[in-house]
Design a protein that fits this description.
Radius of gyration: 14 Å
Pfam families: DUF6540
Structural class: alpha+beta
Number of helices: 3
Protein name: Pc12g03710 protein
Strand content: 25-35%
Distance between the termini: 44 Å
Order of helices and strands: EEEEEHHH
Organism: Penicillium rubens (strain ATCC 28089 / DSM 1075 / NRRL 1951 / Wisconsin 54-1255)
Length: 133
């Protein structure tokens, strides 16, 4: 296993607003992981899928590179995703907010090192956030 793995945001075509997931793009297929919210507006739930390659989805429109993370922290990233609250009580909350909140938590836990390249990449992703109309 490589010592680091790419962390990316996958953006998919979707009715309403675009769907986002967090994608751990490990070399080994068993470690590739897609983290996302599923369900309907205000009825979301977290899904963490191992052996899932976001880059081969037919609805994928963009894959945004964020940074490299320590490969030994893949399970920690999954656990942080599971522990990230899903804010279904907020009418404008979406999968896009969920991904951004996971990134914030990964920064707080020191999984993502807050360098300039990462911050630029994160800001580029944040600029793509859409609101429910």
């Amino acid at each position: 296993m490589a010592s680091t793995v790419p962390l990316k945001v996958a953006i998919y075509e979707n009715p309403g607003i675009k769907h986002w997931s967090l994608f751990i793009d490990a070399e080994d297929r068993d470690d590739k992981t897609t983290i996302q919210l599923l369900g309907a507006r205000q009825k979301y739930f977290c899904q963490v899928s191992a052996r899932s390659d976001s880059s081969i989805s037919n609805s994928l429109i963009e894959l945004c590179s964020l940074c490299e993370i320590d490969a030994s922290k893949i399970d920690t990233v999954k656990n942080i995703a599971w522990d990230t609250p899903v804010r279904n009580e907020e009418s404008d909350y979406s999968c896009q907010d969920f991904v951004l909140e996971i990134l914030d938590r990964l920064e707080e836990k020191g999984i993502i090192l807050n360098g300039r390249d990462y911050q630029n990449n994160k800001e580029a992703v944040k600029a793509k956030r859409e609101s429910w109309k």
